[in-house]
Amino acid sequence: MHLAMLSAIGAVAMPTLAHATLITSSSNTFTLNRSVTDTLGANKSASDGAVEQTNVNLGTTKLGQFNSSTGVLTGVNIGLSSTYKQTSSVTAPATNAGSNGGNANASGTGSSAIKLTVPTGVSGAAANLSATDTCGGKPKEGCNNGATSTPLNHNLTIESASLNDYVGAGTVDVNHTATSLKAETTLNGFNSQASTNSTLDWFGSLTANYSYLLHAEQSFDPWGSKTMTLDFGSVFQGDSVADLVFFFHNLAGERVGMNMTGIAETGDPDDQFTTNVASVGTLAAGTSKHYAASFLTDKVGSFGAMYEFIFADAAPEGSYAASTLGSGYKLTLNLKGSVVERPADPAEVPEPGSLMLLGMGAAALGLRRKRKA
Known about the structure:
The chain is mostly beta strands and 373 residues long. It is built from one helix and 18 strands.
C-alpha cells in the first residue's frame, strides 16, 4: 500500500475579493437600580459629610457567543441602547415639635457614575449624572422632591486580538458597575431629621453583532459533490490511456478561501494510478482548479485506488477569530481500471486447413521414397 501525506501547508491569505459581511446577533435586556441615603439632624445649616459607595456591581447581562459552525468570525460590535436616570430626593417628615410658622428648607445632592465592561480589548461605555434637590414647606409638614435622567447609547467595537473571547457555546458576560453612588444632605431647617436619597436606575438592551464569512466548502463540482469515481475501463496491456480530468471547487458565496492541507492514498500497492495534485494554493469562493489522473497499464489485472484530499479554511484578510477557522474538509476520489492481455495476431497463427495440406504433402513424399527403394 502506498501512503502519502503532505505536511500542513498553512493558512494563506485569500485573494482580495469584495465580500458582503454576514451578520448574526444576540440580544438581551436589563433593568438595574441601586440607592444610597444620607441623613442630617434637625435644624442643621451645613452637611456633616456624604455617604458614598464605589465600584458597586449592579449586575451582569449575558449575550450568546458566536457559534464557530456558522462561519469565520471577522468582527464583533456590542450595541448599547439604554436610559440612565439619577434621582436625588430630599425628604423631611412632618413633626409636632416646634413652631409651624413660616417656611423651612432642606436640600441635598445625589450623584452617580456608571460604566459598562465587556470582555477584553475595548473601553466600556461610561456616564455620570448629579442632581440637587431642595424642598421647602412648613416645619411640621415636611417636603419631598427631585429627579433627572439621560439616555446612554453606545457602540463598542471589539479589538481583533480579543475576538476569540466571543466564540463558543456559552455566553459573553457584560458587567454593569456603579463606579460611584453618593448622597449628601447639605441643609436641614426642619424640626425632624432630613434625608437625601440618591438612586440610579439603568435600563435598556445590549446586542452583540457578529460579523462573519461562511466556511469554505469543498466540492468536485459546483453543486457540492464530495465523492467522485473515475473509471479508466478495460484496456490492453501496454496501451497508452488518456488521463481523466477532475476539478476542485470552493463553492460560491460569502465565504473564505480554501487551502489543501494533505493527501492520503490507499489501495494501490503497485502504484498503477497517479495524479498531478500537489499544492493547490488558495481557492477563493466561487473558483476552481482542474487536475488529472493517470493509469499505468504495464500489469494485467483489476486495479483500484482511493485518494482523500483534505482542505481547510484560508485566513481572510483583516481581522478574524483564529478559533473559527475550519479544517479537515475531505474530498474522496475513487479510481479504477483493468488491464487484459492482448490476443495473438491472427496472421501469425496457421489455419487448420493449411496444417492438413501440409500433413498430406509430407505423407505423399514418404510413400514416394518407399517405392523408389
